[in-house]
Amino acid sequence: MLHSHLTTLNAVSLVLATFQDHGLANDVLLAGSGIGLADLRHADTRITTCQEMRVCANAVALREDIGLDLGQRMHVSCYGLLGYALLTSATLGDALRLALRYPALLGTLFELMLVEDGQQVWLTAGDYRENPALAAFNVEFCLVSMKVICDDLLGRALPLREACFDYAAPDYHARYAERFDCPVQFQAGANGFAFDLEWLQQPLPLADPITHRAMAERCRKQNSEFTGRQAWLSRVRQLLAEQLHAAPGLDGLAAQMNCSPRTLRRHLQALGCSYQQMLDELRFEQAKQWLAEDQLPIYRIAERLGFSETASFRHAFVRWSGVAPKRFRA
Superkingdom of the source (predicted)? Predict the structure, then answer.
């Protein structure tokens, strides 16, 4: 089953804003994501990580190092209620532990951890289960944004002792020094950055216990709502992913979820998607996997994904990715 959960439009909006400076049309970046321009006008719109990653993949195709710039623009104010809760925390350590308690609100694709190591502490990002081709981008985006959050909370730059990454140095590796301002090691077996342990006890300039308690409680409730929706969406996706060869249709899927088609449609609309968009997304992800493995002929892939004709699959894949299946495999 695909690893996916709900998230906000923060990252997508940031991608669009970053490229807007260069006059690039939004539809180029949104291509294949199922996100419409109308969705961007609603602050409470929720999308799946697969939709977010489609936009990010479009961005990386245009600029390989874009993760470093996007992370730099992801300030603590981008996180809504969670951002206010972090700003009003008593210490940096309190704020980071709160952020790590609510990964759904943080919108991270990683398991973030604080690991003490002698006189220093590591903030690590592990357990990545999304598109391997976007691993470096997501690590850059995640760790740079976490460094920016720390700087925002402190009101000054958090001095780092070192940073490490579990992949080979990219061509633009010199830019890492601009973002982390410390020694950087690649192919290190882990992703993270380290700073002196004493910084966890550093009081925050905007600490306010009353506001913090109120914001922390609202974060708890919002997280419950988020995770409840995620569990429901995961179940829908799992059922649909198991039946790509013979998709059950909206009515059939609703029966399997023990609800009416109208209820299922309403829930999907509230999550910013539709039955067809979800089916296309799952078919696209599975098609990419089978094409990359190069074990099945294209007509067999079409059959397994429920297409009656290879030509129909070919047209759909071009719509999803912009290239034909044969070219994608090559």
Answer: Bacteria
